[in-house]
Amino acid sequence: MSGSTTHPTSAAVHAPADLGLPDLDTPRSQVLLAIADDALVTGHRAAHWTGVAPTLEEDLAFATIAQDGVNHADLWYQVLVGEDHPQRQAAVDALGLGRAPSGYRHAVLCEHEPRDFAFTLARHWVTTELEAVRLDALATSPDGAVAALAAKLRHELRYHLEHAALWVDRLVADEDAHDRFRTSLEVVLPEVAGFLEPVADEEAPDAQRVLAGGHRGLRAALHDRLATRLGSSGDGELVGLLEAVAPAGLGGRAGRHGPAFTEDVWPELTALYRADPSARW
Amino acid sequence: MSAPDVAEVRRAVAAVADPELPPVTIGMLGMVHDLAVAADGRVEVVLLPTYTGCPATEMIARDVVSALDGVTGVTGVRVRFTFDPPWSADRIDDAGRRRLREFGITPPGGTVTGAARPEGRPTLPLAELPGDAASRAPRPCPYCGSTDTVLDSPFGPTPCRDVRSCHSCRQPFEAFKA
Predict the structure, then answer these.
(1) pLDDT (tens digit, 9 = 90+) per residue, B83-121?
(2) Which residues pair with A272 in a beta bridge?
(3) Which residue, of A64, A108, A176, A228, has the greatest Cβ tally within 10 A?
(4) pLDDT per residue over A40-55, tens digit each?
(5) Chain-chain contact of A152 with B156 (C-beta, under 8 angstroms)
């Protein structure tokens, strides 16, 4: 059975029909959408803290992380659209903003409300580590556009990694903060399985050419990175939670999203585009 | 109509100002990777974005197009961005480094001797963490030249800049990310 019959289509249903968009239901498109959509939704959620973060530094930090996420998504959509598309920016907008909620392929972990700052930082740390591991793999792609973009993003992600790691250091140094961080990790870690789920037909050669080994192949490297840090702050037992698959965190790669996305992120993110696909801002 | 003068095209492109750092041009920043002028007057410019999250790239592309508008013989302009090769801070030329410093922004690179931190000086919590990662390497203060400086936040007013402060002249400043 092909992916397009077992999974909801990613076609940009809210976009003008004559844009000449690539087929979004191919294995290559699906894996690129997963990468781009993770960044888009993570960026959108990070923007929550603009103006209301606990400190000015964090306001700037999450505003930048938000801007980076949305821009990184834009660049991955550009890879998907192709360099020579005559209406490249309109096509990118159609991909990012023109799909039905079930057409998005991000992990459910990315779409949750930011909740409190402890949850925000726990998810930020884990998803940034996930992104680093995936970019490392993408940087070895034989597809030149994929490899060059991944290498550039991986270089810049150092700032996100350092920022997240600084917060882990700070949180585990204080008893109350450490407790709250741990409680949040107990929610976040079992949902990592949803990030590592493959998109439809991810084993197909054209998807493997983008991400060799697929999302499942990232698991070992991710475990190593997280286990090392958790172990050093006496939280080694939390590593086991990566095996404790939380069903609520699964399904994002197949377009199954919770109300946090379908009733919150998606309507807000796409409202202007759905009202006027040609709007510029 | 005769083909445009390649040197003139090159000068016009290199002179386009960075929209967020107007004293610095895209030529000084080393963003111009390649430039081709066809016999029929069409120009293709390939630029290296300094930072992928940069919202100014679209503006830069527009500014390149309008800068070439006034060059005799140019019949069309196409601006492309590429990450291959990736832009890096060592592409900034000496004039660019000088202008950045005058603007209160320290470029990466240069010699850092690392003076001792004065006793009892408070630091922001994010600044005093271990490690020797690239972003935490000390940068000389663009105002007084002291190397007794500290990274306050890896995220600044634009995606490509971070926020630091000088213990010597007590001036906060920005640094271009490496």
Answers:
(1) 999 998 889 999 999 998 888 888 876 543 333 333 443
(2) none
(3) A64
(4) 999 999 999 999 999 8
(5) no
Nearest to B125 among A60, A144, A170 (CB): A170
Domains recognised in chain A with CATH numbers? 11-274 (1.20.1260.10)
CB within 8 Å: A68 and B54: no
List the single residue in A with minimal CA-CA distance to B55. Answer: A71
**Which residue blocks in A139-216 are alpha helix, DSSP H?**
144-172, 175-188, 192-195, 205-208
User: Which residues, including other chains, have CB under 8 Å from residue A167's CB and lie 6 or more apart?
Assistant: A121, A124, A125
Å between B70 CA and nearest CA of chain A: 25
Residue A13 sits at the chain B interface (C-beta within 8 Å): no
- Percent helix, strand, coil in chain B, to 5, is 20, 25, 55
Identify the structural domains of chain B with CATH numbers, from first to last.
6-90 (3.30.300.130), 105-115+123-176 (no CATH)
* ipTM score assigned to the predicted complex: 0.83
Contacts with A120 (C-beta within 8 Å, 6 or more apart), sequence order: A49, A62, A114
- How far CA A86 is from CA of A83, A214, B84, B118, in Å, comes to 9, 31, 22, 59
User: A93 CB contacts (<8 Å, ≥6 apart)?
Assistant: A15, A273, A277
Q: Whole-number mean pLDDT of chain A?
A: 94
CB atoms within 10 A of CB A119: 19
